[in-house]
Amino acid sequence: MAITEQAHRPTNESEARLWDVAAQVPDPEIPVISIADLGILRDAHFEGDTAVITITPTYSGCPAMGHITNDVELALAKAGYEDFRVDLVLNPAWTTDWITETGRENLRSFGIAPPQGRAEQSSGPVLLTLGAPPRITCPHCGSDDTKEITPFGSTSCKALYSCNTCFEPFDYFKVH
């Protein structure tokens, strides 16, 4: 089960309002999903008078993080916050397990197959396995008669698939 955005939403009223402002920022690469539903919004709190938002990239080299940081800063300024900071943290590493159920449904509705299965967290080396790619459910018609066209999709976190039932191509958000 994915961690819901409520799992990290603060219970303190002023920090919850701060979270809600940042949670409205869409992912720039997949604008139908918010940074909260994608699971990269990790924390919202105050250090004295400074509003602090913590985000974790989907991977350490994600080129969208500068854009996301700017969008969060613009949202905070628009909401009236004057003293704020956006912190980028890499540990713990982001996992597709953090995508909320709402986020998964938004991906599916947009024509992107959400991750199927759970990521296996490891503190040691990552073991790569070869073999047939997983059977992925088509977000357009629901068929699992699909095939991987290439493990490289429109972004590095996605693979390109095709459906043998409705013949539509689609991105699959890979588990990691």
TrEMBL record:
Transmembrane region(s): none
Top-rank taxon, per record: Bacteria
Annotated Pfam families: FeS_assembly_P, Zn_ribbon_PaaD
Residues annotated as domain MIP18 family-like: 20-78
Domain PaaD zinc beta ribbon: 127-174
PANTHER family for this protein: 1,2-PHENYLACETYL-COA EPOXIDASE, SUBUNIT D-RELATED (PTHR42831:SF3), FE-S PROTEIN MATURATION AUXILIARY FACTOR YITW (PTHR42831)
Record-given protein name: Phenylacetate-CoA oxygenase subunit PaaJ
Species per Swiss-Prot/TrEMBL record: Corynebacterium gottingense
